[in-house]
Amino acid sequence: MKKYFLLLMSLAAGRSLVQAQVDPHFSQYYVFPSWLNPALTGAFDGDFKVSGIYRSQWGQLNNGFRTFGVNAEAVTSKKLNIGLNLFQQSTGSGYTYQNGYASFAYTGVRFGKEDSKVIAVGIQAGMLARRFDPSKFTTGEQWSQAGGFNGGAATGEVLAQKGAMVFDAGAGALYYDMDASKKASPYLGVSANHLTQPEGVYINSTDKMPMRLTVHGGVAINVSESFVLTPNFLYLQQGNTDEKMIGAFAQYRASSELSLLGGINYRFQDAAVPFAGFDYKNFMLGVSYDVNNSDLGRTVSNVNSFEVSLSYVFRRNRLLGQRHFSCPRL
What we know:
Layout: H1 2-13, H2 33-36, E1 48-57, E2 65-75, E3 80-91, E4 95-111, E5 117-132, E6 143-144, E7 148-149, E8 163-177, E9 184-193, E10 212-222, E11 227-238, E12 241-253, E13 258-267, E14 271-280, E15 283-292, H3 295-299, E16 305-314
Antiparallel strand pairs: 1-2, 1-16, 2-3, 3-4, 4-5, 5-8, 6-7, 8-9, 9-10, 10-11, 11-12, 12-13, 13-14, 14-15, 15-16
């Protein structure tokens, strides 16, 4: 029975027992930049930004994932950017993952023509929590040959630890080029999360949260004055599993106040992710849909995922010719 229970928990937290130790994620990962890399804190065209994102994963299943995130960032005049993000993922089977982090990025390392090349470094620190609600578990003890399934019957499982909250920290670095005269502007970032490898966040309190290593990058290509194409990639490695994503998105400036966004990413052995959105004045809206092509998608129909994000950017009147690096995102 214990083996059955552990298998149940692994399915509630991911696609396999190994992936139960992998962080939740968004397909629109650049909406939540400091989760990806704390050095991305403040990488937007403005002075203050607040973003919200919602993800419904495998919503057709009774115990699908529901993930929410809220992010706030501010750019200061001291080349120091600050941010705060809150994150929660839950399932109908009684599993909840939560975290909250403060992040800081320093952008004062500059070189090249007119200091257009920048190396940003960032750190983040906060709390991470996981909780289990045994009342929502389903086990073999609740099944009988005579009566079938009885959800009111005891599960037969007693947890010594139903949840934990631990300190967590991460760090990262980012290179980018702000030279607007160039045809192409590359960027590259690396980060390491869960540097403390906190203990006690799983059923077995001796287990540690494995570090998550991230490499991401791309190049913004100015095809014309109104059209920008950005090929990009993302690589995540955590514990014994990894995630690889490649793709591209396009931005078309329809007017001085409106930009249209669209593109597609591909997450290897998992899903194709088309997305679309627009940037109107200070508001940005993005939607994406994961078309699942994994083993689960071939076994169970309609296990796709949907995301929607909304951001608001506050901008003061900028000086003529002032440059910025805007995080490539929806």
